[in-house]
């Protein structure tokens, strides 16, 4: 696509209401962008007798959702989003599944890669690209997976693709504020006050991409993201799915749908503790640990909580438990981590959804290994 000047967020967001459990992450749209409305049709089954390992969770995700390189949201109408393709790359890489990785990237490159070297957000079987705007979380996860794969498999194609995508993120999906450089949700959010999703930032991905590219802008983005995340957590006990960041660094929790709807810790924000618990620096991991006291007040977690930790839905999500496991790990409670990863596995097994299954697999992987370039169990730094 040709580079566009995106209109700032003013209209409704995609909000998927799950039947029994999880959905796609919600992202707000510009006034000109098409809006999707897809109800998740979760498949309920009985829990297996044996807990699944991170490797088995990844294998099950690939078997269930990856079809000829396309990650299919089978419970949401059969479409595909860039986020899902990025998850597919991370899962395949962590499993050392070079064949599936190649198929997922080949499909992504053919169908989603734009003239700006970013990924179009949504594709449908009937129309092809249904929304050509990008989502920076998907771009960041995909770039991370590509440079890791290029290094492990000595494949220059993946390395160069990852570096190109990484440069496009810095060029089109960042902004300067008094907090420092922050990650915008997409080029369409490039006007102040900036729409901001704290769960998009990934210290581990920033570190992987700085090492691969030598571009010091990744270090600046890591510093700004840490400051912005700290500001979000000062505003409330739990982070909101969406916020707005002013040029002067002020942060306001916001609903996903512009100025409408509830402000919640839900499908998006639950990724924040996972992203920060796998960080390699103690200050970053401490941000994930801040959520633990609020989340541990109730053993059973709902898929959406208010910012004080009270359930606002009866739906459940595997991500909710993986997120609490991350917060507990960052806070130093290893027994709680094991229990919550098991709850995440069981929730995923009994209520099959693309989004829940993706984060059951990714969460277990991030918290039990350093294969994705994080340091949840690997070398750490006090800096």
Alpha carbon gap, first and last residue: 41 Å
Q: pLDDT below 50 for ≥5 consecutive residues: which ranges? A: 1-39
Beta-strand residue percentage: 5-15%
DSSP, total strands: 14
Q: Using the alpha-carbon principal axes, give the shape.
A: globular
Radius of gyration of CA atoms, rounded to a whole number: 19 Å
Count of individual helical segments: 13
- Major β-sheet strand ordering: 6-7-8
Please state the average pLDDT score. 89
Instruction: Tell me the series of helices and strands, N- to C-terminal.
Output: EEEHEEEHHEEHHEEEHHEEHHHHHEH
The description of the largest β-sheet is:
3 strands, antiparallel
Helix-residue proportion: 40-55%
Secondary-structure-based class equals alpha+beta
Question: How does the SSE layout of this entry go?
Answer:
Layout: E1 9-13, E2 28-30, E3 43-44, H1 54-65, E4 66-67, E5 70-71, E6 80-81, H2 82-94, H3 98-111, E7 122-124, E8 128-131, H4 136-152, H5 156-172, E9 174-177, E10 180-183, E11 194-196, H6 203-213, H7 217-235, E12 242-245, E13 251-254, H8 271-277, H9 282-289, H10 292-295, H11 318-331, H12 334-350, E14 351-352, H13 354-368
Antiparallel strand pairs: 1-2, 3-14, 4-5, 6-7, 7-8, 9-10, 11-12, 12-13
Helix pairs in contact: 1-2, 1-13, 2-3, 2-4, 2-13, 4-5, 4-6, 6-7, 8-9, 8-11, 8-13, 9-11, 11-12, 11-13, 12-13
